[in-house]
Amino acid sequence: MKHPHAIALAALLLVSGAIQAQDKSVEVVHWWTSGSEGAALKVLKDDVVKRGFNWKDSAVAGGGGDNARAALRARVAAGTPPDAMQMLGYSITEYAEEGMLGNVDAVAAAEGWDKLVPVPLQKFSKFKGHWVAAPVNQFGFLKVGDKQMAGQAALASAVMDKSFQEKFNLVKGSIPARTDVAMDSFDDCGKKSMNDMKAALKNNTMVGSFAHGHAMRDKAKAAAIDVVAKFFDSGKSPAEAAKQLAAAVAANK
Distances in Å between the alpha carbon of 224 and those of 212, 217, 252? Predict the structure, then answer.
């Protein structure tokens, strides 16, 4: 079955000190390993290569991204981080709060991202007014030295390129984060998804995805999943489970 068209926010995080200016390579850790995901990612790979940078692919399959996120934490702790990392939702915010994200404000300003990206998506693309992620879906950036910023800027620009956003999302089965991408080539599901998103933006009714990490932080999400899982095994009443759910979320904000 074709993947449903949706805005699934992800982020490529460029890690401090990781890009080697002399070989202009960018190592990317991600979990897009299925056929359609790999084909979509190839669109980005080819664009980055055209901009003069070598793409070093480091795929970590399984766990809906959990395995990749665990691998990132381990590599950061060991002092051997990749150049870039696919991430979702509040994970970006949490990395920013830890002081690990740099910004691509110069690229964002030059290309007018403030006018192209819907405000609800900017919530996961910006931190304290600075662009730390580029949505495509969505890709973002950790702190790097001055010599590495060229690679970071090239990757950010590639992600936000209008043509790339169209080609990537057509292959991926999602809709662009940019609202100015023509939808003529998308199927009826994609067109409806974009219309629904624009209507939600107009009516201020757009909400984040629980599954993709945009409704709440990882700690609260894990607590909610734990309560629901135990409910199905316990035989407790829905009312009691609802109280436990509210308490678990409140305790893990």
Answer: 14, 11, 9
